[in-house]
């Protein structure tokens, strides 16, 4: 195995043996959890992982428990060969590729649910989603036992949920958020962007532009209701079906009427059949 070829591992004993060998050599370990269909945003996380630790493990697992019955689990893009080639170029040390039976063996009966942070935004719209995320990420952290785990800030509510789980359960890894990677026109990179038609792809950057505009108008304690309403109208005029646009406290994710501390403008909207999410700091 060359220095740039990740070891593909699909069973837990082999994973733990590999990590134990690194630990015995005094090496630190970083984890980048993914569902595959890797893009430059994921590879930026891998690069950050390699800067933060000697060894980088990238998990690839399309987690069924975070998809609702009408969501896109069956059609979610899967291309393990291309993903492994990308990880080789990025210098990942191991690709952890368990199957569903390894992650959820017969008799599996445990779920981790986080209250408060999941009460708004995507929580009510995707029942069970964050419990599925919290459970699978807890399993991944316990399987790999990294010193640090890295997550993109595009999924900001997910990031805050994971931070809450790690803090509440006294888990050891540092959870680090990495700023959203965007296309030149502002569209946040996402594996689901490949669902967009050419016309939808041309419209999609409008989401980021609207959130950026709201953030600018919400600074210095100005009321947020007007800019949010204007933003929703602009998105609808551009062909989006808006689920929410909200200005929230960056820590609690509670909606705010005025920004008086760290905050985020967050949104979810459909463009055709594709659900897009994004957020920007205020």
Topology readout:
Elements: E1 7-9, H1 12-24, E2 29-34, H2 40-52, E3 55-60, H3 80-90, E4 94-96, H4 100-103, H5 122-125, H6 129-144, E5 148-152, H7 156-168, E6 174-178, H8 198-203, H9 206-218, H10 225-237, E7 241-249, E8 263-271, E9 274-281
Using only CA atoms, what is the Rg? 19 Å
* Main sheet makeup: 6 strands, parallel
Q: Tell the overall outline.
A: globular
The CATH topology name of the largest domain reads Rossmann fold
Strand order of the largest sheet: 1-4-3-2-5-6
Query: Helix count?
Result: 10
| Ends distance | 46 Å
Using DSSP, what is the number of strands? Answer: 9
Could you give me the name of the CATH homologous superfamily of the largest domain? HUPs
Relative helix content: 25-40%
Uncertain ranges: none
Mean pLDDT: 97
Architecture of the largest domain, CATH level 2? Answer: 3-Layer(aba) Sandwich
Features:
282 residues, Pantoate--beta-alanine Ligase, Chain: A,domain 2, 6-stranded parallel β-sheet, Rossmann fold, 3-stranded antiparallel β-sheet, 10 helices, alpha/beta, 2 domains
Describe the model.
- The chain is of the alpha/beta class and 282 residues long.
- It folds into two domains: 7-178, Rossmann fold (3-Layer(aba) Sandwich), CATH 3.40.50; 191-281, 2-Layer Sandwich (Pantoate--beta-alanine Ligase, Chain: A,domain 2), CATH 3.30.1300.10.
- It is 38% helix and 19% strand.
- It is built from ten helices and nine strands.
- It has helices spanning 12-24, 40-52, 80-90, 100-103, 122-125, 129-144, 156-168, 198-203, 206-218, 225-237, and strands at 7-9, 29-34, 55-60, 94-96, 148-152, 174-178, 241-249, 263-271, 274-281.
- The strands form two sheets. It has a six-stranded parallel β-sheet, with helices on both faces. Strands 7-8-9 form a three-stranded antiparallel β-sheet, with helices on one face.
- Helix 6 (129-144) packs across helix 7 and helix 9 (206-218) runs antiparallel to helix 10.
- The longest helix is centred in the middle third of the chain and has 16 residues, at 129-144.
